[in-house]
Design goal:
mainly alpha, 2% strand
Length: 226
């Protein structure tokens, strides 16, 4: 009787922990969805404020770039399961920075550092082509297939998936208004709100599983060496 009670207690405890963990994850991903929608709401509000008309272009660019960075940063925190260490903090800041820096290609394509020139491009600049992420995908697949892991390979993998997260979340947010651009094939239609949100949430979800899988390979390789 005691054994049966202990077994039921363990099952009940496991179910409770699973439910709490599921609720935690859903809340964290729900916050990302709110951040995505909230950033665009702030941007549209600022754009409609007549008293800020003289500064609206600069403010819109700052808010838009910051929104890209914030979404990328929070996505990376989801990928590392909200673990905060000095190294993860540095990586999160880099993720923010990389996502913001995607828009530098506007100035490169314009051949000018003037904002008005960067905003008058007739076509989308090179860093906004989602095709540039193909090497990231190939490298991730090759690393997973190799099933070999060292500290150096882990760091390389970390930077690959970090930069992928930063750029992909940027592209998806832009795709909400303009669609995804796959050079040289063309662009998709603009993403609907549900597709945009689901696609953005899927980035940290998928990348976190890839990162976890790579950690499993690394630990397995370490055990084999020992």
């Amino acid at each position: 009787m005691s054994v049966r009670f202990d077994a039921l207690h363990l099952v009940s405890k496991h179910i409770k922990m699973t439910a709490l963990n599921t609720l935690r994850v859903m809340t964290q991903y729900g916050i990302l969805a709110i951040v995505c929608l909230g950033c665009d709401k702030v941007l549209s509000t600022v754009s409609s404020m007549k008293q800020l008309a003289a500064y609206s272009t600069v403010m819109k660019c700052v808010i838009d770039s910051s929104a890209h960075g914030l979404i990328a940063l929070y996505s990376w925190l989801l990928i590392v399961d909200m673990e905060v260490t000095p190294w993860i903090a540095v990586n999160s800041i880099f993720c923010f920075f990389i996502s913001c820096c995607v828009d530098v290609d506007h100035f490169i394509a314009a051949g000018s550092w003037k904002l008005k020139d960067a905003l008058r491009l007739k076509s989308r600049p090179p860093f906004h082509s989602t095709s540039i992420l193909l090497p990231h995908v190939i490298l991730v697949i090759s690393e997973l297939i190799s099933k070999q892991s060292t500290g150096e390979r882990k760091r390389k993998m970390e930077w690959i998936i970090l930069s992928f997260t930063a750029v992909m979340t940027h592209h998806l947010r832009d795709a909400y208004r303009r669609g995804l651009w796959f050079w040289p094939f063309g662009s998709t239609p603009p993403l609907t709100t549900p597709v945009y949100i689901i696609s953005t949430l899927s980035v940290p979800f998928v990348v976190s599983h890839i990162r976890r899988h790579f950690d499993t390979i690394r630990k397995s390789a370490t055990l084999d060496i020992v």
